[in-house]
Write a structure and sequence with these properties.
Blueprint (H helix, E strand, L loop, with lengths): L1 H29 L4 H26 L3 H26 L2 E2 L2 H21 L2 H5 L4 E3 L1 H25 L14 H33 L3 H13 L1 H12 L4 H25 L2 E3 L4 H20 L4 E2 L1 H20 L1
Antiparallel strand pairs: 1-4, 2-3
Helix pairs in contact: 1-2, 1-7, 2-3, 2-7, 2-10, 3-8, 3-9, 3-10, 3-11, 3-12, 4-10, 4-11, 6-10, 7-8, 9-10
Length: about 325
């Protein structure tokens, strides 16, 4: 039954995210909002909606390890598995701007989370907690990141740039898609968390391990699909933007919202997990900076995948 809850919840989340994104994008287009703005806000939110839904639902239900494990695990999965798999399909060329600004920003977000989550080590507190204050700080970082993204996007926008075609629907259908999408996200998030918690209890595995692996992989499906399709269409560089954007959104917005709603106590999430998160971003940066002229090759992609497999094996054995 727990597996049915898990699969059914994930399907509802994915369908809900798709419906909400299509409906919101259609209304935005109707009011002549530029496609670039829609892509940076509504579509970006759509691909991270599964993580947001699961983490907020987990926080409200008192499953902090699933809430945090979902974000940490998703980001590790994104950096190691998604970039690794995409590189196997086609080598990924990284732009100078991404290498100098965006990947370092991704590393910074991981370090900020590592600092916020180490109350015992830094403040000699009784336990590690992502407090409401920490959540608000993460949201402030998100606002700065959003401002930077808009500035870069509008600077780089050319008059002859082809805009992504957004399907415009009748207003009533757009509103129906938004309401239906939100309802599916809420219901799916609840089912998914219940299923994941039930599986953890029945297997005798901690919620943190389930959050870092099963939940993280499930909620990263939109990013995985986007990156593989981009590689097949000979646009593998989209994978890097997709991964970095998603990782920053997850830490600054998803965890920021979750911790702002209710403090998150870290019991099963360890410094090993957080250091792997930081290390995976640094490894991606090193591969892009020092080898093969700003290109993630198939060999480097294979190394990233092996690193993820090794991390998962260590998690299971611990």
């Amino acid at each position: 039954m727990d597996i049915l809850f898990l699969i059914g919840g994930l399907l509802l989340i994915l369908l809900g995210a798709n419906g909400l994104t299509d409906g919101a994008a259609s209304i935005a287009k109707r009011f002549r909002i530029p496609s670039i703005v829609i892509g940076l806000t509504i579509v970006a939110f759509g691909t991270s909606a599964p993580e947001l839904t699961v983490s907020v639902s987990s926080a409200l239900k008192g499953s902090a390890d699933i809430a945090i494990g979902n974000v940490v695990g998703s980001n590790i999965f994104n950096t190691l598995m998604i970039v690794g798999c995409t590189a196997l399909f086609a080598p990924i060329v990284i732009s100078r701007n991404t290498l100098r600004k965006e990947i370092p920003l991704c590393i910074l977000s991981s370090i900020v989370l590592l600092i916020c989550a180490n109350d015992v080590l830094l403040d000699h507190s009784a336990d590690n907690v992502l407090s409401t204050t920490d959540g608000l700080i993460l949201l402030c970082f998100f606002i700065i990141f959003l401002g930077y993204t808009f500035a870069i996007a509008f600077q780089g926008k050319k008059e002859d740039e082809e805009e992504e075609e957004i399907k415009q629907m009748p207003m009533w259908r757009s509103i129906l898609y938004i309401i239906g999408g939100l309802a599916a996200l809420i219901a799916g998030g609840s089912f998914f968390v219940d299923g994941a918690s039930g599986i953890a209890r029945s297997l005798g595995v901690s919620e943190s391990v389930i959050g870092l692996t099963l939940v993280a992989g499930g909620t990263s499906l939109p990013e995985l699909a986007t990156s593989i399709v981009a590689a097949l269409k000979k646009n593998p560089e989209i994978a890097i933007g997709n991964v970095i954007g998603s990782n920053l959104f997850n830490i600054f917005f998803v965890l920021g919202c979750s911790a702002s709603i209710t403090p998150l106590h870290l019991t099963g999430i360890t410094n090993l997990d957080l250091l792997v998160l930081v290390g995976s971003s640094i490894l991606l940066w090193i591969f892009g900076l020092f080898f093969a002229k700003r290109t993630i090759t198939r060999i480097e992609g294979s190394i990233l995948i092996l690193c993820y497999i090794a991390y998962t094996v260590v998690l299971i054995y611990n």
